[in-house]
Amino acid sequence: MSAAQNIPIRNRDDSAVTNSFDPSTSPTATFTSPSSSFSHRASQSAASAKQLKPFNTQDVKVLLLENINVTGQDILRQQGYQVEALKSSLPEDQLIEKIKDVHVIGIRSKTKLTPKVLEHAKNLIVIGCFCIGTNQVDLNYAANAGIAVFNSPFSNSRSVAELVISEIIALARQLADRSMELHKGIWNKVSAGCWEVRGKTLGIVGYGHIGNQLSVLAEAMGMSVIYYDVVNLMSMGTAKQVPTLKALLEGADFVTLHVPEIPETQNMISTEQFGYMRKGSYLINASRGTVVDIPALVEAMRSGKIAGAAIDVYPNEPAGNGEYFNKELNTWAEDLRSLKNLILTPHIGGSTEEAQSAIGVEVAEALAKYVNEGSTVGAVNMPEVNLRSLTADEPNHVRIIYIHKNVPGVLRRVNEVLGEHNVDKQMTDSRGDVAYLMADISNVNQRDISSLYNSLEDLGSRVRTRVLY
């Protein structure tokens, strides 16, 4: 990295010094999130936020894969970062080569950031998952390497919920089959096996952001809603929580899945679970591809136990668009494609203009806030730590970020280093094996900054030290 911009700083004797020390990875520009009109009025009388400038912003290298929405790209470019955006994921060998020099990487669901990949990412400080799921990243490895991970837990919830609602109606009316038949010139006007959804029961497995929005939409169409979750959650409307997955499967006409990919959800719906479901019921999976045992689904549909299904996610998905959904990718692909009243979509639950734009903003804002100010609010693998922004009235301040092993005695040794200076504010928290400390120190000069950085780097508990000033 190139040296920092020269920034005049006053030392304790008010003599000007030149700031050229470069111990960190953080940009020049300060990122500020949109504020409400109330907070804007309140801030008009307050001092403006100070721009932290450890080095030239063009030195921050960002790699965005899988066609990240332009809203996110624009936010990151506006910070002055060097942004390279690619439309697809990369094979592992190419990804390893690309990731060696980047400080920030943005991905969606197809890029796998494994320990093998991350061990080559010597400059990487933060990962942005421009989606809900984070199972494509080894979160523990990233945390222990001092790499924060952010995602977008809210922005595509409505889009997924609306897709599921459309699939409920389409399955009940066999719309996909009628459409394909007419495309082939076959007129087949039938009512047998076609139903209204009013009065039917929807069973939601996983009552999170998507599940509770879906609950409201389903009730608006006259459906009854039951849901199962591993924690007790307050229901929306008149929905009722049931105590077991079995109870939900036995009581629902439509079952929709909205759970993460974790060991407990692997083949969560398989032969045994299909046995509990009502004859002629329907299954929708817009969560993760490993949640449903696809060969078991094929058998359940062939036997008539399941009247229809909509699948948006798969155990193995192509890296890009094209004629790749075949038995080489998934051995059961041709069996699945042969079924009637089956809606297959290519992982498009969150693929709307609105959702992708919102995801781009949400994740890019979090990335810029972390790079610029060290805030871990919203990180999925780090404790949430945040301090107010330094202001222009605090010109001789430095922000210390110290990520360290969560072992006894570390804070005492860190505070021995910081205690030689005037610590204005400090916050620390831990999560698992990793702890995160942030401190603002006033009345520092270049020599102080260098001394602080080197002293913290020498501590045996260190995972990563960053200095923003």
How is this structure best described in words?
The structure is a single chain. With 469 residues, this protein is of the alpha/beta class. The protein has 3 domains: 133 residues, Rossmann fold; 187 residues, Rossmann fold (3-Layer(aba) Sandwich), CATH 3.40.50.720; 85 residues, Alpha-Beta Plaits (2-Layer Sandwich), CATH 3.30.70.260. It is 30% helix and 19% strand. It is built from 15 helices and 18 strands. Strands 10-9-8-11-12-13-14 form a 7-stranded parallel β-sheet, with helices on both faces. A hairpin with a 2-residue loop joins strand 16 and strand 17. InterPro entries: ACT-like_dom_sf, ACT_dom, D-2-hydroxyacid_DH, D-isomer_2_OHA_DH_cat_dom, D-isomer_DH_CS, D-isomer_DH_CS1, D-isomer_DH_NAD-bd, NAD(P)-bd_dom_sf. This is 2-oxoglutarate reductase. Keywords: Amino-acid biosynthesis, NAD, Oxidoreductase, Phosphoprotein, Serine biosynthesis. Its EC number is 1.1.1.399, 1.1.1.95. It catalyses: (2R)-3-phosphoglycerate + NAD(+) = 3-phosphooxypyruvate + NADH + H(+); (R)-2-hydroxyglutarate + NAD(+) = 2-oxoglutarate + NADH + H(+).
Secondary structure tally, helices? 15
At CATH level 3, the topology of the largest domain is: Rossmann fold
Architecture (CATH level 2) name of the largest domain: 3-Layer(aba) Sandwich
Largest sheet properties: 7 strands, parallel
Number of domains: 3
CATH superfamily of the largest domain: NAD(P)-binding Rossmann-like Domain
Report the top-level CATH class of the largest domain. Answer: Alpha Beta
Major sheet: arrangement of strands:
10-9-8-11-12-13-14
Rg is: 26 Å
State mean pLDDT (0 to 100 scale): 88
Through-space gap between termini? 17 Å
Low-confidence stretches: 1-46
* Shape descriptor: elongated
What share of residues is helical? Answer: 25-40%
Percent of residues in β-strands: 15-25%
Class by SSE composition: alpha/beta
Q: What's the number of extended β-strand segments?
A: 18
